[in-house]
Amino acid sequence: MTVDFSNWVCPTPLRDYPAIVMGHGAGGKLSTELITHLFLPAFGGPHGPLADAALIDVGGARLAISTDSFVVRPLFFPGGNIGELAINGTINDIAMMGAQPIALTASFILEEGMPLAQLGLIAESMGRAAHNAGVILIAGDTKVVDRGHGDGVYITTTGFGLVPAGITIGPEHARPGDAIIVSGPIGLHGIAILSVREGIEFGAPVTSDTAALHGLVSTMLASGSRIHTLRDPTRGGVAAALNEIAATAQIGIEIIERDIPIPPAVQAACELLGMDPLHIANEGKLIVFVERDDAERLLAAMRTHPLGRDAALIGYATIDHPGVVVARTGIGGMRVVDTLVGEQLPRIC
Question: Per its UniProt record, what InterPro entries does this chain match (predicted)?
């Protein structure tokens, strides 16, 4: 029997908010509505697909540009801090267009009373992360707000990268039949933040997966595999990333739950708290849509890189139920994997 998922919806109430709520920044439906109905009309509409970065032609070269802000709380967490997260996250947005990052800018909103020693550690980690990634910090700005009007520091970055000739990657290029691969275990960053913020232990230490992914992307491109789409599943997790791709490309997506690499500690935390690992944020993973015939070649290439050694094939794109993501469960059933309306874990990046 063929199941029609196209009309499967949750009967949520109409969302009518007269003021900004935390959920508007969580990467879910509220974030999408804010962009679609407020910012895009004000800015004259989209000037291309809403991907991780924008592409512009400059003197015959294609330049990828991305701007991001980081407001994570706490500033320091297992596996990293807001500084290196800002560098890695911006590099990853550039890399998801197939671009090689070349330079970054950074601005800082500092709260009065923040210890200079703490700010120094964050700045040093940013410089170290940029150096390790082979990019340079070329410009910046600082502002200070009154005590009690910030969480120590907020960081905004802009990244620039060059797209190699012949590379055309974006969410609009995903197509039915594509194999879907994730580069490694999911959910680590969100659970690492939660464990520190709430003081919860999950039986095993969980550290953030924050990492710059452009080296892995270069390895993937060098394999000659026909890559159509790349996405780093940050806010909203794998579920949000897949739903955005399905909606943009107007394809259906079917994933197999048992094939998704979920660390035991992440699974345990989600079971304890009633969360879905597919909604948990990541900061060092990517999702790739690739021609089905090239999937094994790409997997082999990814597993030669330290950030892709646990890469796994998790599903396929389909012509069925366009715009809808479904998961095949461990007992053989099917469920719709939707995007959250608001926030599940606030302030994770």
Answer: HypE, PurM-like_C_dom, PurM-like_C_sf, PurM-like_N, PurM-like_N_sf
Domain with 132, as residue range(s), is 50-163
**C-alpha span between 244 and 32 (Å, rounded):** 10
One digit per residue, the tens of pLDDT, for the chain of length 349 reads 455 554 444 444 445 778 888 777 767 777 778 888 888 888 887 777 777 789 998 888 899 999 999 999 999 999 999 999 999 999 999 999 999 999 999 999 999 999 999 999 999 999 999 999 999 999 999 999 999 998 999 999 999 999 999 999 999 999 999 999 999 999 999 999 988 887 777 667 899 999 999 999 999 999 999 999 999 999 999 999 999 999 999 999 999 999 999 999 999 999 988 899 999 999 999 999 999 999 999 999 999 999 999 999 999 999 999 999 999 998 889 999 998 766 666 667 8
**319 and 225 inside one domain:** yes
Sorted by sequence, the CB contacts under 8 Å of residue 1 that are 6+ apart come out as none
Q: For the range 245-249, what are the long-range contacts, defined as Cβ-Cβ under 8 Å and sequence gap of 24 or more?
A: 245/171, 245/174, 245/287, 245/289, 246/174, 246/322, 246/323, 246/324, 246/325, 247/323, 248/49, 248/50, 248/171, 248/172, 248/174, 249/171, 249/172, 249/173, 249/174, 249/175, 249/317
Residue 303, class by beta-carbon neighbours within 10 Å (0-12 exposed, 13-18 middle, 19+ buried)? middle
Distance of CA 37 to the CA centre of its chain: 22
Indicate whether 341 belongs to any domain. Answer: no
- Tokens (6 digits) for 324: 């809808």
Q: What is the CATH number of the domain that holds 232?
A: 3.90.650.10
- The answer as to whether 39 is a domain residue is no
Q: Burial, 43: exposed, middle or buried (Cβ in 10 Å; 0-12, 13-18, 19+)? A: exposed
Contact 135, 209 (CB under 8 A): no
- Residues 118, 187 within the same domain: no
> Domain count of the chain?
2
* Residue type at position 58: V
Asked if the structure places residue 304 within a domain, the reply is yes
Which residue among 163, 186, 220 closes a domain? Answer: 163
